[in-house]
Amino acid sequence: MKSPLLESLLLASVESGASDLILHSGRRPMLRIEGELRAVESEAIGEDDLDALWEECAASKGDLDYDGSITATDGSRFRVNLLYQLGARAAILRRIRRNIPSLDSLGGPSDLLREWASVRAGIVIVSGPTGSGKSTTLAAVLEWINQSFARHVITIEDPVEYVFESKMSIFTQRQVGIDTPSFAEGLRRSLRQNPDVILLGEIRDAASALTAIQAAETGHLVLATLHASSCAETVERMQLLFPQAEREAVRKTLASQLLGILCQKLIVSHKNGLALLCEYFSNEGSSRKIIIEDRLTDLSDFIARGDPQSTRSFSDSLLRLVRDDRVTEAAALEIAENSQEFSRMLRGITSSTQATRRQ
Question: In this structure, which CATH number among 3.40.50.300, 3.30.460.10, 3.40.50.880, 3.30.450.40 belongs to the domain 103-357?
């Protein structure tokens, strides 16, 4: 049973629009609101509060790291990571949004995502760091499918982040550790459950990566997330999950089944709190060859120089945010990987190729 303090903190998180609640034993709780940490005017978190949280998440007190979930009295759901730091207990709670946003509201390549989601077979990877909105993007894609097609969608997540109400599609949602023992096993089993679309909450190992690619090969649309900081790194991390001797074959299969990669980050905006920064490409003839030949530097160049309808670099995305007055020039220069090059882009001193792309 949740402690009164914990319950009040959960409700305060919802009311304030916080994305995260951070709890350290013996300290005042912190909320992350619009990317900024703010202390909560409350008493310090005590051992009794953490005992209740560990019990609510079905963790034993000796668990050093544990992933679970919790629901507030108003129905709001939180993803919970229980941990120890400096020998004391702590917890990070991330609020799971109940309302699934529309694709157009996110600020990403909505038309391209709809194009990928309309295909009956292939794999789409959404990558980025923790907290970059990957799950929200894929939830918006699934909700668009739900409103557009009669599909059987199976999700394998840890934990389930969005609960879907079946509309045109029907959903089977499975939580790792409760409904299935692992991502890889849940994915393998899903192939016997008559799916059209499979959402894999995270590619974590070679088994889940290989099964995801094979599922796409056998006629399923697979949507998956991966922790990576760029599209090129996403491809690299996929192959590095496998032993050296297997990587060439993996690249060939991935190149043939990959529909596209969207890598995203959330950055602070001086308007509306946060803005979505994207890099993406639609996998076509030249990019397939680049992936097969493991020329990842060339993949980054391809993204920078490609058709803006199907590819966009982080630099172009950042430039667009500045031009739309979502991010200040000063903030963009701090974020840009190459501030000198980005400064030239801001002033229009770019190559003719780049200038053509942005027209």
Answer: 3.40.50.300
pTM (two decimals): 0.81
- For residue 315 the two structure tokens come to 């630099």
Rounded Cα distance, 61 and 143, in Å: 38
Quote the DSSP letter at residue 29. -
Neighbour order of strands in the sheet with 311-312: 170-175, 152-157, 197-200, 221-226, 122-127, 258-268, 274-282, 311-312
What sign does the CA torsion over 89, 201, 290, 310 have? Answer: negative
Beta bridge partners of 227: none
Q: How does pLDDT run across 43-66, given as a tens digit for each residue?
A: 999 999 999 999 988 888 788 899
Q: Which residue has the tokens 């409700």?
A: 11
H/E segment holding residue 82: strand 77-85
- Torsion angle (degrees, nearest 10) of CA 301, 330, 110, 253: 30
Q: Is the pLDDT of residue 251 over 80?
A: yes
Closest CA to 92 of 53, 48, 132, 139: 53
Q: Could you name the CATH architecture of 4-96?
A: 2-Layer Sandwich (3.30)
Structure tokens at 126: 């959404």
User: How would DSSP label each residue in 30-72?
Assistant: EEEETTEEEE-SSPPBPHHHHHHHHHHTT--TT-SEEEEEEE-
pLDDT, tens digit, 9 for 90 and up, residues 301-345:
999 988 888 999 999 999 999 999 999 999 999 999 888 889 888
d(CA 153, CA 228): 25
Task: Sketch the domain layout of the chain as residue ranges.
Answer: 4-96, 103-357
Question: 233 with 291: CB under 8 angstroms?
Answer: no
Tell me the C-alpha distance between 190 and 172, whole Å: 10
